[in-house]
Amino acid sequence: MDGREHYTFILLSALLPLFGVAAAVVLLWNQLVGPADLVIFAIMYVIAGLGVSTGYHRLLAHRSFRTTRPLRIFFTAAGAMAGQGPPVIWVAHHRRHHRVADKPGDPHSPYHDEEPGLKGALKGLWHAHMGWLFDRGLSSDPMRYCPDILRDKDMRFISKHFVWFVTAGVVLPGVLGFAFTGTLFGAFTGALWGGLVRFFFANHITYAVNSIGHYFGRRRFATPDESRNVGWLALFSFGEAWHNNHHAFPRSASHGMRWYEIDISAMVIGGLEKLGLATNVIRIDRERQEQKAVAWEKLGGGRHARATPDKPLAHRPRAAAVGIVDVE
Ligand SMILES: [Zn+2]
Ligand SMILES: [Zn+2]
């Protein structure tokens, strides 16, 4: 898949789900949506969401754990079904994002446009959310950013045949719809809800981690970027929205770093580990979090971090910060 095909795909992947949602709203209005459609939507949402969060992001981009070859293929194929791009390209952009987060060269920083005022803020948020996908000039060289993924023949196969996996992400819920209802109309609404409508919601949640997750929310760690923890996005992003924690410790298998920071991907990885299907799971203990928090605080944190009311971890009372008493 070259850049040009990719661009056409991006346009389609932005527009088709939008039409799908419009069609679904009309059907909803006419009460032509059955419980089967919602079940199919949920099943596909979980498969694709975990594919992106556990597979593309934690397994491939950050190597937060290791797993068996069949599971690596399963998670990557599930991630491809989300329609956010081939694994090779997704991982390259993402690793580049971490390398220069919120600095020149970041593919999707909301601070890319420095125009002052509300207009600049909205332009930046749009760029981080979706606008960056339409930048024809943007490319993150996989040879430079993810040679490990390129060397893996399974990853190359899924990347090369990526469009087939996306298509499967529409056909599969259609088949489920037929299986549940026994009608062609059921197959159609299944494909609509489990395919197009699901693309729309799941992808906007991912995009929101990039836009909102670098703009609004709390900062526990004074990382050199603007990443934020966004609690209300955590459940539906499978834990991805603990984005400040993630930028502080990119390799950690768990992005939620307190018991109350719900992180479904981390639960899945922990479950796989118990079953002996995940090994080398990277965990960051509280002491290491604390040490790094103090070190970053000395460096000064992100450019806009000072304006937020929330205090980074290193500013809090020492007893709380080292975990003797948790005041949060
Ligand atoms: Zn980020
Ligand atoms: Zn990451």
TrEMBL record:
The Fatty acid desaturase domain, residue ranges: 42-262
TM segment ranges: 7-32, 38-56, 162-185, 191-210
Membrane topology: Multi-pass membrane protein
Gene Ontology molecular function: any one: oxidoreductase activity, acting on paired donors, with oxidation of a pair of donors resulting in the reduction of molecular oxygen to two molecules of water
UniProt keyword annotations, A-Z: Fatty acid metabolism, Iron, Lipid metabolism, Membrane, Oxidoreductase, Transmembrane, Transmembrane helix
Family: Belongs to the fatty acid desaturase type 2 family.
Protein name as annotated: Acyl-CoA desaturase
Organism: Actinophytocola xanthii
